[in-house]
Design goal:
11 helices, Outer membrane efflux proteins (OEP), about 65% helix, alpha+beta, disordered N terminus
Length: about 450
C-alpha cells in the first residue's frame, strides 16, 4: 500500500511556478473517489473482523417486562408448595433479568469465520493498494500525455515557422521573377497543412490537460498552460529484466491483483469450514439474575445457571446447500487466482516488451532527429545556391518534424511502459516514484 504522506505533501510549501509529477500524484491520491471507496471498503472489512471476533466473548443482556392480565397471575415462580405460605397472585406483574451466555464449543465455526473475515480484510487492503497504484499510473500517464502533446505542439510550431519562412521566401523570389508561381503555391499548401495539423495538436493538448485536471481534482484553469517539469527515468531504474523467471516470481509475490485473488481464495476456503461446522452441535453456557414482582410489591431475586446444546438435525437441505455453495465459491476463487496469475504473467510480458521497444525507438529516433536536422540544413543551403529543389527542402522539413514529434512520444512512452511494469510487479509506490523518476527544471 502506498504510504499515507499526502498531508505533509499538501501542507509543505510547493513551487507554485511549476507542477511536478509527485505533486500531481499526491493531489490525485488525496482527492480521487476510487481511493476513497477503497479506503471505506477497508474500514468495512475491519469492522467485519471485529464482529467475527466478538463471537469469542460472552454476550450480556438486560431484559425487562411489565404485564397486565385479565385474571390474576402468579407473581413469583412456584419452586415448591407450602400451604402455610400460599403463592401470591396479581393482575399486574413485572420482571427484570440480567443474563449472560457463552458458546463453549462450536467445532471451529467461530475460528473459520474469523479467518474468513481476516482474509477478506487483507483482500481489501490489497485492493486499496491496487487502486492507489492504478490512480498513480493513470495520473502519471495523464501527466506524460500533457508533456507529449505539448512537445508535439512545439514541434508543430517549429515546422509552421520554417514553412512560413519558406512561403515568404517563395513569394519574394516570385515577385523578383526568380521563381515560378508553382513554388509559392507549393509552399503555401505545405504551410496550410502544417497549420491544420497544429490545430489538431492544440486540441490534443487541451484534452490531455483536462484529463490531468480531472484526475487531480482541480479546475481546468489550474492546469491549462501551467508549467510542468519534464520527467526522466533515473539511471538506477533502467534494467534489462533478462531473468524472466525472476520477474515472474516478483510479480507473483507482489502483484496487487494476485494478492487480492490470494486473500479472497483464503477467505472462501475458510467459509467452507464455517459452513461444515453447522453439521455439528453447539454447546452454550447461560446464567442470569432475575427479579420478579407485581407493579408495586417487593422484588424477589433468584439466580439461574445452565448448559445447553443446539443441534439442528434436519434443515430441509438448507445446510447441505450452503456447504455446496461455499465449496463452489472456494473452487471459483482458486480458479480466479490461477487466472489472475496468468494475466499478471501476460502483463509482465507486454509491459517489458513495450519498455524494451520504446527504449530502442528512442535511440533510433534520437539519431534520426539529428540526421534529419542536418539533412534539412543541407537541403536549405542547396536550394539557396541552386543545387537543390524546394521539394527536397519541404520533404526534409517534414522528415525533421516526424523525427522530433516521434522522439518526444517515444521518450514519454518509455517512461509510461516502465511505470506500467512497476505496477504489474507491485512496486509502484511513492518510494519507487521518488527513486525512479527525476523531474527536470
Amino acid at each position: 500500500m502506498i504510504p499515507i504522506v499526502l498531508f505533509a505533501a499538501l501542507v509543505m510549501p510547493q513551487d507554485t511556478a511549476r507542477l511536478t509529477v509527485t505533486a500531481a500524484i499526491d493531489r490525485a491520491l488525496a482527492t480521487h473517489p476510487a481511493v476513497a471507496v477503497a479506503r471505506a471498503s477497508v474500514d468495512a472489512a475491519s469492522a467485519d473482523v471485529g464482529q467475527a471476533r466478538a463471537a469469542w466473548l460472552p454476550s450480556v443482556g438486560l431484559d425487562g417486562s411489565l404485564n397486565k392480565y385479565q385474571k390474576p397471575m402468579i407473581v413469583w415462580p412456584l419452586h415448591g408448595l407450602d400451604l402455610r405460605n400460599p403463592p401470591f397472585f396479581d393482575t399486574e406483574t413485572s420482571q427484570a433479568a440480567l443474563g449472560a451466555s457463552y458458546t463453549l464449543f462450536d467445532f471451529g465455526a467461530r475460528s473459520a469465520k474469523v479467518q474468513a473475515a481476516q482474509s477478506t480484510r487483507e483482500a481489501a487492503d490489497a485492493s486499496l493498494g491496487a487502486t492507489e497504484q492504478q490512480v498513480v499510473a493513470r495520473t502519471l500517464a495523464a501527466y506524460l500525455r500533457v508533456l507529449t502533446t505539448r512537445g508535439v505542439l512545439a514541434a508543430e510550431d517549429q515546422r509552421v515557422a520554417a514553412l512560413a519562412s519558406e512561403a515568404k521566401r517563395a513569394r519574394d523570389r516570385f515577385a523578383a521573377g526568380k521563381a515560378a508561381r508553382v513554388d509559392t503555391l507549393r509552399a503555401a499548401a505545405e504551410l496550410a497543412n502544417a497549420q491544420a495539423d497544429r490545430v489538431s495538436s492544440a486540441a490534443n493538448v487541451d484534452v490531455a490537460e483536462r484529463d490531468l485536471a480531472r484526475l487531480m481534482g482541480v479546475s481546468f484553469t489550474a492546469v491549462r498552460g501551467a508549467k510542468l517539469s519534464a520527467v526522466t527515468l533515473s539511471p538506477s531504474t533502467v534494467e534489462a529484466f533478462a531473468d524472466r523467471d525472476a520477474v515472474d516470481a516478483r510479480a507473483e509475490r507482489a502483484n496487487a491483483d494476485v494478492l487480492i485473488a490470494t486473500r479472497r481464495a483464503d477467505a472462501a476456503a475458510a467459509s467452507v469450514g464455517a459452513a461444515k461446522a453447522t453439521r455439528l452441535p453447539q454447546l452454550q453456557a447461560t446464567s442470569a439474575i432475575v427479579d420478579r414482582s407485581n407493579i408495586t410489591g417487593k422484588w424477589l431475586s433468584e439466580w439461574q445457571v445452565g448448559v445447553g446444546m443446539t443441534w439442528p438435525l434436519f434443515t430441509g437441505g438448507a445446510r447441505e446447500s450452503a456447504i455446496r455453495r461455499a465449496e463452489a465459491a472456494s473452487r471459483a476463487a482458486q480458479e480466479q487466482l490461477r487466472l489472475t496469475r496468468l494475466n499478471a504473467s501476460q502483463q509482465v510480458d507486454d509491459a517489458r516488451a513495450m519498455y524494451e521497444s520504446s527504449r530502442a525507438r528512442v535511440a533510433a529516433l534520437d539519431a534520426a532527429e539529428q540526421q534529419a536536422a542536418e539533412v534539412a540544413r543541407i537541403t536549405a543551403l542547396s536550394r539557396d545556391v541552386g543545387d537543390g529543389t524546394q521539394t527536397d527542402y519541404l520533404l526534409a522539413e517534414a522528415a525533421l518534424f516526424r523525427a522530433r514529434s516521434g522522439l518526444v512520444q517515444a521518450r514519454n512512452a518509455t517512461i509510461a511502459a516502465r511505470v506500467e511494469l512497476a505496477r504489474v510487479l507491485g512496486e509502484l509506490n511513492r518510494a519507487w516514484i521518488a527513486t525512479a523518476l527525476e523531474s527536470q527544471p
